[in-house]
Design brief:
single chain; mainly alpha; two-stranded antiparallel ribbon
Length: 364
């Protein structure tokens, strides 16, 4: 009876934790983001801990603060570089002479309109040019910007709290890497503590390697795409490279999204400059650059990051990402590899002895 009571209480405790995590989902999100940032910054914090000032080692608090400042400076640098580029791109879109462009592409527009009418996508009374003008006006309308500004103003308070919370938690996770682990162990029964210590240690090692590798992949892709487009003389190569590289955070589907965004930005920039005869050339240059960059990514970067960093077979990773995408869409694809990594480690500790589990976890 006592054993059954303990099982029931443990079950109720788990249910209560799940409900609290759901109710305080924003706080859980802050903790997760802070944990990821601390995993990325951990190698630098460890290096800083070895720095000597005279006969004294650098205090852990100062190492954590220095690491946090480096992370903040990198994020601020990205914002300072790319926000003006995005603003300039938006300004260039407003400079497109729709009437002149429609006259130049009159034949192509007529053929496209006929095709869309046949497919019942638009009616015979609708004009593609008018639709395009209306869409551009809605994008650039001052009212739209006013709404955006109002939304930003209304969320400033919560945004400030969120950023402060993440930075505060990240600092203490960097200062004391055992802090989060010790908190989790407080919730674990004594007889399972050793297993959970192993789970947390392996998870930290593998996830740290994965997130650092992911940052290297994104930075490399941004650099390759930007350099390739600059070589071809494509305008705004930096913003296209940044957005295209950033989309690689979404496994497999990201390159297609990034390439589509790149083509749209390249074409609209060319239209704004009035170089109507260069549109197809620019589109092909963008597509070619993305294709080569992603070929390098698929052959070199992804096997190193997705397979070696989490010690899983590429086919295994592919199937996990596809299944996660079908269950939870793009967020599921982004979270698939970290979640699967932790699941494999937990399975090895608690389900060892099953043939399939032993096979899937033999490298961790």
């Amino acid at each position: 009876m006592n054993g059954n009571f303990r099982i029931i209480m443990a079950f109720l405790g788990v249910v209560l934790l799940v409900l609290m995590a759901w109710y305080f989902s924003n706080i859980v999100a802050y903790i997760i983001i802070a944990a990821v940032l601390s995993l990325i910054g951990h190698p630098l914090a460890e290096l800083m801990n070895k720095v000597r000032i005279g006969k004294f080692l650098l205090p852990p608090s100062l190492s954590a603060l220095t690491t946090l400042l480096v992370i903040c400076l990198l994020i601020a640098g990205f914002i300072m570089v790319f926000v003006p580029l995005v603003s300039r791109q938006a300004q260039m879109i407003t400079n497109i002479d729709v009437e002149e462009a429609s006259e130049y592409y009159d034949n192509e527009i007529s053929q496209l309109r006929t095709f869309l009418v046949k497919k019942d996508i638009i009616t015979k009374d609708e004009s593609l040019v008018q639709m395009l003008e209306t869409q551009i006006d809605s994008w650039m309308n001052l009212a739209t910007f006013s709404n955006i500004a109002s939304s930003i103003a209304s969320t400033t308070g919560s945004l400030f709290i969120g950023v402060f919370s993440v930075l505060f938690l990240t600092f203490f996770f960097l200062q004391d890497p055992q802090l989060l682990k010790n908190f989790i162990l407080l919730l674990v029964p004594d007889k399972m503590e050793e297993k959970f210590r192993t789970i947390l240690h392996k998870s930290k090692v593998l996830l740290s390697r994965y997130f650092i590798g992911l940052m290297i992949e994104l930075t490399t892709m941004m650099t390759l795409i930007s350099l390739g487009l600059t070589f071809f003389g494509v305008k705004n190569a930096l913003i296209i490279g940044f957005l295209g590289g950033l989309m690689n955070i979404i496994p497999y589907l990201g390159p297609l999204i990034g390439g589509s965004i790149g083509v749209i930005l390249g074409v609209t920039t060319t239209l704004s400059l009035g170089l109507y005869d260069q549109i197809w050339i620019v589109a092909l240059e963008v597509i070619g650059t993305f294709a080569v960059a992603n070929l390098i990514d698929n052959i070199i970067l992804q096997p190193l990051i997705y397979s070696k960093s989490v010690s899983a077979h590429p086919i295994e990773i592919f199937l996990v990402i596809i299944m996660a995408g079908s269950l939870a869409g793009i967020p599921g694809m982004i979270l698939a590899i970290p979640s699967y990594t932790v699941l494999r480690i937990v399975s090895k500790e608690f389900l060892g002895g099953f043939k399939i589990v032993d096979k899937l976890t033999e490298n961790i």
